Amino acid sequence: MSEIHATAPLTHPGSPVLDSQEPRQFTGKETDGHVHTFFDQDQYPAMHFEDAGQQKLAAALGMWAFLATEVLLFAGLFLVYTIYRNLNHEGFFLGSHMLDIPKGTANTMVLLLSSVCVVLAVNQAQKGNSRGIVRNLIFTMILGLVFFVIKGFEWHHDYEEGLVPWMQWDGDRLGDKNFQLRLFMVLYFVMTGTHAAHMIVGMVLLGVVAYKAHQNRFRPDYYTPLEMVGLYWHFVDIVWVFLIPTLYLIDLYAKTPGGGH
Amino acid sequence: MAHANDFPDADHGHVRAADSHHGHDPHDHGTGLYWIVFLALAGLMIATVLVSYINMGHFNVPVAYGIASLKAALILWFFMHLNRSTRLTQVFAFASFVWLGIFLIMTLGDYISRNMVPRAQAQTMIRKVDSYDVVSGSRHNKLDTVGPEEDLGVQERANTPGVTEHKNH
Amino acid sequence: MTTVPITPDYAEPLPPIVRPAGETNYLNISYTLKSWLLTLDHKRIGMLYLMSVTFFFLIGGIFATLMRLELATPQGDLVGPDTYNKLFTAHGVTMIFFFLIPSIPATIGNFMLPIMIGARDLAFPRINLFSWYLYLIGAAFTMAAMISGGVDTGWTFYTPYSSVYSNSQVALAVVGIFVTGFSSILTGLNFVVTVHKMRAPGMTFFRMPLFVWSNYATSLIMVLGTPVISITLALVAVERLFGVGIFDPSNGGDPVLFQHMFWFYSHPAVYIMVLPGFGVISELMAAFSRKPVFGYKVVAFASLAIALLSFFVWGHHMFTTGQSIYGGLVFSVLSFLVGIPTAVKVFNWTFTMYKGSVSLETPMLFALGFLGLFTLGGLTGLFLAAVGLDVHMHDTYFVVAHFHYVMVGGTVLAFLGGLHYWWPKMTGKMYAEGWGKVSAVLVFAGFNLTFFPQFILGYLGMPRRYYAYASEFQVLHVLSSAGASVLALGFALPAIYLTYSLFRGTPAGDNPWGAKGLEWETTSPPPTENFRRIPIVTEDAYNYPLAEPKHGLYPEDRLIDNQSKTDRGDLQALKAGDRH
After folding, report:
1. Residue B100 and residue B143 in one domain
2. Nearest CA-CA distance, residue A79 and chain B, Å
3. C or N terminus of chain A, fewer CB within 10 Å?
C-alpha cells in the first residue's frame, strides 16, 4: 500500500522522443501587455500547442467529430423518412416517380466531380502550388453553382406542378391517401433543403479558403483550413449520395399509379 | 509531481511517429488514383439508377443502399483520406455510423414490433374486443367461439385487427 | 508494461514557489471589457459561463418559486391554468437547457479540464468563445419567447400539441434551443479533442483525474446526441411555420416518432447533466478522504459505460404512449442495466471514504449530501424503469420527485461542491467556511423537505403539471412549499458569501486543501498560460500519501488497537527505543 508505482512507462515504445532541447518556453498569450483575443491573427503553431503536428492532428480530429454530429443530424431526417415510407407506401412511391430522375442523376455527377476538384486542390496544396489550389477551388464552386441551377429548375418545376405543400398545393392524386403524397413532398423539400443549406455554407467556406490560397497563405506543411473545408464538402457529397436512392429511385421498375409526370 | 527538467527526454504523449508525417507523404502526390475513384463512383451511380429499374422484390432497397454505402466508403477512404488518417480518426468516422445504426435500429424495432402481441395477451385481447362488440364482419361470429384454452389458428390471428402473427410460435 | 517505482513526493516536499514581483494571473492581466468579451482564455470563458448559468439558475428558480406558491393551496389562487402551464414550461426549459446542461462542463469543466491534464488551453479557444455566444443567443431567443407570451407545452414539446394546437411562442423557444444545442456540441467537441490531443507529457489516459474521464464521456454524448434534438426541434419549427404536418397524425405523421427522436437525445442528456457531477464527486471524495479513489479504473470505465448505455434506454419515457410491448420490454431491461455502472460508482465513493481520514469541509458536506440524494434518486429510477410500475407512476409527482433527486440532489449539489472546492483556485480567495457549512446543511434539509413529500404525493396519485388539486393532498404540498423556501435560502447563501469573498476573502494560497492534481500545482489564480512550464506527469491521479495506515495490516497497528490509550505512550517509547 505504501509503495507507489507509476503504472505506465514514461516513454511509449516506438514514439519519437521530442527534440532533446527543453520544452518550449511560454510567456503566455500576453505580449507586451496585450492579451490575445478573438480577432487577433494566430501564430502557427498556435501558442497553446506544443508543435505544428499536434495542432494539425487536433484540427483533423475536431473536424471528424464535427462530421459525426452532422451524420446524426441527417440521421434524424433519414429516420423520419424510413418510418413514414413504410407507413405510407403509395404516396412515397408516387412522389418518387414525380421527381426528375435525369436531373437528379446529373446533379450527383456534378457533385462527385466537384469532390474530385476539392481533392485535387488539396493535392496542389501538398505540392505548394497556390495557383493550382485557387483554380481547383473555382472549378468546385462553379460545379456547386451548376448543382444549384439544376436544383432550382427542379424546384421550380415542382412549384408549377403544385407540389409544394405550403404553397399552392395541387397534388391530390391519391383520393383518401392524398396526405401521403403531401408527406413525401414535405420530406423531399426538408431533406434537399437541409442539404442545400449545407451546400451554401460549403460554398462560402470554399470562397474563404480560395481567397486565403490566393494570398499565398498555404504552404506544403500548412494547409489545414483547406483540408477541413475539403472534408466538409466531401461530407455534403456523401449526404447527396444517400439522398438519391432515398428520394428519386423508389421502385422505378413499376408503373406509376394514378398519373405521373 | 516532478517538473520538466527532471526528465529532459520524456515522451510527449500526444505526438506519435505516424502522426508527424501526416499529410505530406512524398509518395502521395499523384492524381491518377483520384480519377480512378471518380470513374468508379460514376459507374456505381449509373448502376444504382439502372438497378432500380429491375424488380428484385425485397432486395431493391438493400441493393440501393448497399451501392450508396460503397460510394460513401470510397469517398471516405480516398477523398477524405481516411486511408492515411490516424486510427483514432478512423474510429471517430466509424462511430458516427454506429450511432446512426443504434438510432435507426432501436426506433425501427419499436415500429416493427408495434402490432405484435404476446400469445397469451392476444387471446385475452380478442375475447375482450369481442365482448365489447367492436369487431365487425364475419370475423365476429367466428371469434365468438374461441375459448380460453383453445389454440387460435394462424389465419384467425393474422386477420384480427390489432393482432398480427407472432413469430415465436 | 514495466512499473517504475517513484519516490513519493511527500518524502521531500517541493520548495515553496518563489513568485517574481508583479506576477500576473488570468484575472489581473487585463481589466478591459474587450479582454473579457473577446477572450480566448478558457478560464475567463469558464467564468463567463459561471455568471450566465448562475443568472439562469436564478430565473428558473423564480419560476419554481411561483409554482410552489401556487401549490400551497388546492385552489388556483395565484395563477390560472394557462399561466401555470407556462410557468412549469419556463422552469423546465430554463433549468434544463440553460442551467443543468452547461452547469458543470461549461463552467468548472471549461476552467479545470485543460489545467487538470496539463494543457495551456482547450484545443480550439475560438470555438470555445463562439459556443458561449451561441449559448447567449439561444438563451435570448428562448427568453424572448418566455416574455412575449410564454410557452405552454412543457419542456418536452410533445407533438402534435406543440406543432399544431398550442397558441404560444413555441417556434421562438425551439429556435433558441436549436442554437443552444450547437453551443453544447461545440463544447463537447472541444473537450473530446482536448482530452485526446492536449495532454501533458506522461499524462496517460489512466493517469487522468476522474473529473476529466467523466467530462470526456459527457462530451461524447454531447457530440453524438445533440444533433438529433436539433433536427427534431427544427422539424417542429418547420411544421409550425409552414403549416405542414410532419408529426401530425391527421397528415399521416406519427407523434410517437417525435418522442423517439426527442428522447434519443433527451435521455442521454440527463447523463450530460449528471456525469460531470460524478466526476466532481470523485475528486471531492479523494481529496477529503486523503485516499485514491477506490477502483479508479472501474470508475473511469463506468463513466464510459453509462455514456454508451444511455443511448439504448430512451424508450422508458414512452411506456404509456403506444410503443410496442416488446420495445418497452427491451428498453426496460436496458434501463435496469444503467443501474450497474451507476451503483459501481456509488459503492466506490463509499469505499473511498472507508478508513480514509475524512474531513468534513463544505465541499465534502455537499458531496456527502450528493451521495445520499443521488442514491435515492437513482433507486427510484429503477421503479420507473419497470414497465408495470411505470404505468402507475407515469406523469405523477413520483416522476417529478425522482428527477429532482437526480438533477438537484445529484447535479446541483455536485456543482456547488465543486464550486466550493475549486473556488480558491479560480479566484485565489477563500470563502467563509462556516457559512459554507450552514449552506450545505440548509440545502440538504430543504431539498428533502421539498421533494420527499412529492414521492408520496405521486404514489397516492397526484398527477404532475396541475395547478389545482384535491384538498387531501394539501398537507404534503404545503410541506413541499415550505421546504422550497429553505432550499432557496440554502442556494442564496453561497451566492452572497462567494461574491463577498471575491472582494474581502482571505488569499487562499495555491493548495488550500492539500489536494493532489495538476490544478493544485499551479498558482491561484492560475496564470493565463496555466503553467509557467508544462509539467511532466510521473504519477497516478490521487497519489495521496497514506498518512497513517489504519487498516490493521501492520503489527504495530494491531498493537495500538488492542491496547488502551494510556499504553500508547509506552509503545512510542518502544518504537523510539528500536531506532537506537
Report:
1. no
2. 6
3. N
Give the ipTM: 0.87
Which pLDDT belongs to residue C32?
86
pLDDT tens sequence across A18-74 = 333 344 444 444 444 556 777 776 677 777 888 888 889 999 999 999 999 999 999
Domain count within chain B: 3
Interface of B with A in 101-160 (CB under 8 A): 103-104, 107-108, 111
Give B-chain residues touching C119 at CB under 8 angstroms.
none
Q: Which amino acid is at C174?
A: V
B108, B116 contact by CB (below 8 A): no
Residue C546 to residue A5, Cβ atoms within 8 A: no
Q: Which tens digits make up the pLDDT trace of A91-127?
A: 899 999 989 999 999 999 999 999 999 999 999 999 9
CATH classification code of A79-248: 1.20.120.80
Q: Does some domain include residue B94?
A: yes
| HEC-encoded secondary structure of C326-339 | HHHHHHHHHHHHHH
> What pLDDT, on the 0 to 100 scale, is given for residue A46?
78
The 10s digit of each residue's pLDDT in C44-83 is: 999 999 999 999 999 999 999 999 999 999 998 899 999 9
Q: The whole model's pTM is what? A: 0.85
CB-CB: which of A12, A109, A253 is closest to B55?
A253
User: Is A173 or C52 the better-scoring residue by pLDDT?
Assistant: C52
CA distance B155 to A129: 72
Same domain, B138 and B97: no
Domain that holds residue B124: 119-159
Nearest to B31 among A65, A72, A123 (CB): A123
Quote the mean pLDDT of chain B. Answer: 70
The domain locations on chain A are 79-248
CA distance C313 to C548: 45
List the single range of A253-257, C172-176, C489-493, C567-571 with lowest mean pLDDT. C567-571
C124–chain A Cβ distance below 8 A for any pair = yes
Residue in B2, B115, B117 closest to C536 by CB = B2
Q: Name all chains with 3 or more CB-CB pairs below 8 Å to chain A.
A: B, C
Residues B73 and B98 in one domain: no
Q: What is the pLDDT of residues C518-547, one digit of tens each?
A: 999 998 899 888 887 788 898 889 988 764
Residues of B whose CB is below 8 A from C217: none
The grid coordinates of residue C313 equal 434506454
Residue B8 domain-assigned (yes or no)? no
Handedness of CA A56, C189, C29, A40 (dihedral sign): positive
CATH architecture of the domain with residue range C38-548: Up-down Bundle (1.20)
3 state DSSP class of A6: strand
Q: Facing residues of A31 across strands? A: A34
Q: Crossing angle for the helix pair C433-460 and C362-385, nearest 10 degrees?
A: 10
Beta-carbon count within 10 A of B41 CB? 25
As given in the structure block, the three cell numbers for residue C388 are 408495470
CA distance B166 to chain A (A): 19
Check residues B22 and C541 and name the one with the higher pLDDT: C541
Q: What is the pLDDT of residue A40?
A: 74
Answer whether the bond into residue C525 is a cis peptide, omega within 30°.
yes
Fill in the amino acid letter for C377: G
Domain for residue B109, yes or no? yes
Query: Is residue B7 domain-resident?
Result: no
* Domain identity same for B67 and B94: no
**Four-residue CA torsion sign, C125, C127, C130, C135:** negative
B109 and B132 housed in the same domain: no
In chain C, where are the structural domains located?
Answer: 38-548, 549-580
- Cβ of B79 under 8 Å from any chain A Cβ? yes
Q: Give C395-408 pLDDT, tens digit per residue.
A: 999 999 999 999 99
CB contact under 8 A, A241 and B71: yes
